[in-house]
C-alpha cells in the first residue's frame, strides 16, 4: 500500500537585498572625508586661516559648545520658535482654506489680497515686528507663522478646490454631508498638495526664524552666526554655519519622511 504524503511547500528564495544604498553611503562618506582632509591640508598653506578656518578648529568649537551647553541652549530657542510658528501657521492656513472652499465667492475675493500680501518679503517685516514685540521669541514665532501659513494655504486651497468633480457629484447623489465630503473626499484630494507644502515650508520656516535672529536676538542659531561675525571669530562663524546647515538638512529629511508616510497609498511613479 502506497502512502501519499503531501510534499512540503517549497518557499521561494528571497531576493537578495540591494547593496546600492550602502554603496552610495560609502561613496558620499569617502567624498566628504576627502574634502575635509584636503581642506585641513590647504588651511595655512594655500588658504589664509584668518579668512577660512580648518575643520579641526570647527570641530573643537562645536565640541566646546556641546560641553558648555551653548549649542543646546541656542538650538532649542530656534526650534521652539520654529515648531510653534509652523504648527500654528499650518493649522490656521488649512482652516482658512477650508472656509474659502466652502464659501467659494469669499475665497475668490480674498485670494487676491492674500497673494498680494504674500508678495511682501518677510524680511522687510522683521523690523516692524521687533518694534511691536521686541527682540524676544514672539517675533521669531510670528515670522515662522507667516512663512508656513502662506505656503500651506496656497497648497491646501488648490488641493481642496481642485477635487475631482466626479467624486463631488457622487457625494451629492449619495446625499453626503459637507463634513463627509470634506473628510472623505476633499481632504484626500488635497493630501499630495499638503505633503509637498510641508516639504517646502519646514526648511523655509527654519530659515525665516534664523533671519529674524540675524536682525535682532540674543539667542538662537542666527545669533551665534551674527555674534561670531561681529567678533571676527572665524572658527565660531563656520561652526554656526555648520549647525544651521545641519538643522535645515535634518528638517528637510523629516519633511520628506512625512511626505512619504502621507502619500504611501499613492504609487511612487504618481507622486
TrEMBL record:
TM spans (from-to): 22-42, 77-100, 112-135, 141-160, 234-258
Protein's UniProt keywords contain Transferase: no
Locations listed in the record: Cell membrane
Pfam families according to UniProt: BPD_transp_1
Domain ABC transmembrane type-1 intervals: 71-255
SUPFAM superfamilies in alphabetical order: MetI-like
Stored CDD domains: TM_PBP2
Recorded topology in the membrane: Multi-pass membrane protein
InterPro entries listed in its UniProt record: MetI-like, MetI-like_sf
PROSITE patterns from the UniProt entry: ABC_TM1
UniProt keyword list: Cell membrane, Membrane, Transmembrane, Transmembrane helix, Transport
Family from the record: Belongs to the binding-protein-dependent transport system permease family.
The name this protein goes by in its record: ABC transmembrane type-1 domain-containing protein
Organism: Asanoa siamensis
High-level lineage: Bacteria, Bacillati, Actinomycetota, Actinomycetes, Micromonosporales
